[in-house]
């Protein structure tokens, strides 16, 4: 498979962090053109800090990290410290990753996204979206010409037939900025949606955590420690066998397009109802004449996914300090 050029837009966040590491550990498959940060799991000052820390952990001080929008387009920010801790990347016993020494790029994320898509060859850049869609929707508004030039949008968000995780009907990324999500889903851009329908099957069990810890590198040890903190919340809330590894599903699909199966349907975003704000209203049985506007992941080979994740995390040197 040829190397794909991607921009990762994220709100680290424990699962975002693993997604970034998976991408950086896969240079033969992925060329990360840039990492853009958005407010989501925690405020922008922390999502940017955390993205820088993860790049440093990966030994990639050459990575370009950009700060983006600090709040949703029209609403106050809703965050998720209850899942990710006050730093957004809490470890057990209240520890956090060391403060990053590398700095953000001076350019704002939105002009970076516009400039990159406009200067790269048409249909050559994939947007991997792991947080609220504020940056991308803003970029679409500033330069609509990028919509037809994007190779693919692969996003973690929504729930086609599963219950929500922040309200009974909404997944967090869609809930935080439903207006931004509506712009994306109405844009006509090619969208692949990795929703809770599959990410709630990709669970970091204790056995998986042990396999990661046994790799024995600095990176794998930090990943295992991050997952130990991250799983606590989901285990208590859902009583699941482990925490759902939402965002790495996006990168796993970029690397191996046989991990997930998809269904092409229409998805629209609820914006006005307080009860169902952010719901990805999915015409699963095509009972309307709404046009198909995205591929929704409906099943996942979890063994194949975790084998890939562990194989790639093992790529980081054991002596990585
Ligand atoms: O609902 C899960 C999604 O919201 C993940 O991307 C998580 O990191 C948060 O951004
Ligand atoms: Ca995220």
Question: What features would you highlight for this structure?
Answer:
single chain, 321 residues, Inosine-uridine Nucleoside N-ribohydrolase, Chain A, 12 helices, globular, binds alpha-D-ribofuranose, binds calcium ion
**What's the CATH first level?**
Alpha Beta
Main β-sheet description: 8 strands, mixed
> Which stretches are low in confidence, meaning pLDDT under 50 for 5 or more residues running?
none
What small molecules are bound in this structure? Answer: alpha-D-ribofuranose, calcium ion
Protein described:
The protein has one domain (4-313): Inosine-uridine Nucleoside N-ribohydrolase, Chain A (Alpha-Beta Complex). The chain is 36% helix and 18% strand. It contains twelve helices and twelve strands. The protein has an eight-stranded mixed beta sheet with strand order 3-2-1-4-5-6-12-9, with helices on both faces. A two-stranded antiparallel sheet has the order 7-8. The longest helix is centred in the last third of the chain and has 21 residues, at 218-238. The model has no long low-confidence stretch (mean pLDDT 96). Alpha-D-ribofuranose is lined by residues 11, 13, 15-16, 40-41, 130-131, 156, 165, 171-173, 246-247.
Quick structural summary:
The protein contains twelve helices and twelve strands.
Produce the secondary structure layout.
Blueprint: E1 4-10, H1 14-24, E2 30-37, H2 44-57, E3 65-67, H3 81-84, H4 109-119, E4 125-129, H5 134-142, E5 150-156, H6 172-176, H7 178-186, E6 191-194, H8 196-199, E7 203-205, H9 206-213, H10 218-238, E8 242-244, H11 248-255, E9 260-265, E10 267-269, E11 280-282, E12 294-300, H12 302-313
Parallel strand pairs: 1-2, 1-4, 2-3, 4-5, 5-6, 6-12
Antiparallel strand pairs: 7-8, 9-12, 10-11
Helix pairs in contact: 1-2, 1-11, 4-5, 5-7, 9-10
The structure holds alpha-D-ribofuranose (RIB) and calcium ion.
Residues 11, 13, 15-16, 40-41, 130-131, 156, 165, 171-173, 246-247 line the site of alpha-D-ribofuranose.
